[in-house]
Amino acid sequence: MRGAWAPPANQLETPTVSTKRISIDPVTRIEGHLRIDCDIRDGKVVDAWSSGQMWRGIETILSGRDPRDAWLYTQRICGVCTTVHAICSVRAVENALGLEIPLNAQLLRNLIMAAHGIHDHIVHFYQLSALDWVDVVSALDADPQATATLAQGLSNWPNNSAAHFAEVQGRVRKFVAGGQLGIFAHGYWGHPAMKLPPAANLMAVAHYLEALDYQRRANQIVAILGGKTPHIQNLAVGGVANAINPDEQSALNMERLAYVRTLMDELGGFVREVYLPDVTAIAGLYAAWLPYGEGVTHYLSAPDFPRDAKGTDFGMPGGYIPNADLARFHPLTHFGDPYFEQNVKESIKHSWYQGDWTRSPYEEDTVPHYTDFNQEGAYSWVKSPSFAGLPAQVGPLANVLAMVAAGHEGTKRYLDLALARIAAVTGSAVPVTALHSTLGRHAARCVRTQVLYDMLLENYEALIANIAGGDYTSFNPPIFPKGEQMGFGFHEAPRGILSHWIVIENGKIKNYQAVVPSTWNAGPRNQDDARGPYEAALIGNPVLDEERPLEVLRTVHSFDPCLACAIHLHDNERQRVIRVSTV
Ligand code: NFE
Ligand code: MG
Fold first, then answer.
1. For residue 545, which of 56, 219, 222, 523 sits 20 to 30 Å off, Cα-Cα?
2. Would you say 562 is a known binding-site residue?
3. Which ranges of the chain have pLDDT less than 70?
4. CB of 196 within 8 A of CB of 202?
């Protein structure tokens, strides 16, 4: 059992007859096993609990192994953000050894990260969350010509034609008539919270299908530069594994790089002409949702896309923002920044691990101790991270706010564009503060994607220039001294700041901890019983129909949950009032 637990004030109230518990388990259209419990009163969420329902123990598996191999194991934490645990792992080992990598390796890693991030954000919006807002069945009622008029008013995308929309509508109609909605079969179609007009629904469904094609092109870039995808091979502690030689068939050569450039050009059109117009139009049409989903407003993100071998100059800034106050932004300035190292702790007070401590990742252990779902005690496999003692929200919103606070020109330009487009739909100005919301997380992810595309262009040009200058180096071999070394790496992954922490002893891993974006956001209450970001964001969320809690999914999905990452098998019977299955 845990130490003495003081229930939050709102749990001391006697529940009224109208308070209802819903348990969504599993939440789907995410990676991994997430259970969300909500207390609903008078059509609103009054309390919430986020629970990770799966445990794998990769951190334990790493103990005693060679630090040069760690990235191959950690990359298997997740099948979605596959590259990120590899990149973060080699950064942690390089930091512990004080090892610099060649500039070519840095730029190649950046290209892989940018392409992977764009792929991931496109998939999140269209495949993993759009159907919380878009009614597929309503798209059947749309007039293709009216849909084309709407879409052409938003962008010049060539497929925004009446003929194309009519063709898509015909395809969807066939599915529905044949009773073969497939992955769309269990959606909340016709739900009263679905507010888009039929034309907007048809436009979004058409772009959902096109997104499948464009996310693949982004992933092809990852595969070419990374050796394969998912789970890249072209990496090493000290750089990257593949040789660079413009004229060699067996190395990274000009023919491969030219193909990457072609894929980049195709991808850019979708990112600029489809994704941004869609997100801002849908956010504008759902303006009534802008007040919901704020939650934790301490924001943490990592600077990334290093321009130098050392990691001191970054294409995308990051850092800490307390209390949504951009004037108090504290940047992280370099790999190994002690401001980050000293302020990150994890608590297991409400998690299924042995003990009750709040520790630096260097000093953690990972000993499972399952006790069933006990909302006053332990109720999740996810640990509860804190920064400077407080929960922090991570993800594209945290990153975009940090970049705005840091005065990043590209971010400000894309954010102004996005807010102006939303305002054009709503008819009134939309301030930056509107971003502290469920829809704000979608808008920020889309803004971040635009910046990631700039990173793809910048790093591609830099790599070509460096190779053209005659530099083909890609690897500096690591040397492991006797004794103990400690280090950490950070990386701004698609779902937010990721950090890996390693203690090496005599060339072997003594301790390894991953503090992951979805751990920050999906974590249970912390050492002071403060709610984690998912839990806090759900408070006040409307729920029109407890049997079909679409609005809860909107807010949870806006974080892009990945529980495989967060916890690094378990299932059992538990009490519930309503069991809900979701798409
Ligand atoms: Ni499995 Fe991940 C990302 C990491 S977790 S998806 O992005 O790291 O939140
Ligand atoms: Mg961990």
1. 523
2. yes
3. 1-17, 183, 568-583
4. no
